[in-house]
Write a structure and sequence with these properties.
Number of helices: 6
Oligomer: single chain
Helix content: 55-70%
Distance between the termini: 36 Å
Number of strands: 2
Shape: globular
Number of domains: 1
Order of helices and strands: HEEHHHHH
Radius of gyration: 16 Å
Structural class: mainly alpha
Largest sheet: 2 strands, antiparallel
Strand content: under 5%
């Protein structure tokens, strides 16, 4: 079930609202200017995988069906796929918040070079799948994950 307001609220709770160019807060959902974001520092490897996967999956639900679940997916055409999923995420969260959330996930995953060693293959797979599904590219995350997988 899609619930864009829930995902918007979770994203803002974790990484805070997006700051505009002139440093004024843009409050798009439930975030308040005076509330510090929770952050991602205490997430486990599985938590990162599940968080990233849930945001990407939420966006794919919109592409696969409308809100009633009655429309069939049009997966065999080139007009949906990553672009449609990315656009859905941008509509739900805003491009700035989507980018901020996934950049925060990537940075938290690779902040400590030893942290990635604690990721199970499923955790790495979920994180990388989520970035790919949303059409997001984070060079450092891909490099660290690739190096770790080659070592294994």
């Amino acid at each position: 079930m899609r619930h864009p307001k829930l995902f918007l609220s979770v994203a803002e709770h974790l990484v805070g609202p997006v700051v505009s160019v002139n440093s004024e807060m843009i409050v798009t959902g439930t975030a308040r200017k005076d509330t510090a974001p929770r952050g991602l520092s205490t997430f486990s490897p599985q938590g990162f995988g599940n968080l990233a996967w849930s945001f990407a999956k939420q966006a794919t639900i919109s592409v696969e069906s409308d809100d009633t679940g009655l429309r069939e997916s049009n997966r065999n055409t080139n007009v949906n796929g990553r672009l449609a999923v990315y656009e859905t995420s941008c509509l739900d969260l805003g491009e700035g918040l989507l980018t901020k959330l996934f950049a925060s996930i990537a940075e938290a995953c690779i902040h400590d070079k030893n942290r990635i060693k604690g990721f199970k293959p499923q955790d790495i797979s979920n994180v990388i799948w989520s970035f790919a599904t949303l059409g997001l590219y984070h060079t450092s995350l891909l490099s660290v994950c690739s190096e770790e997988l080659v070592k294994r």
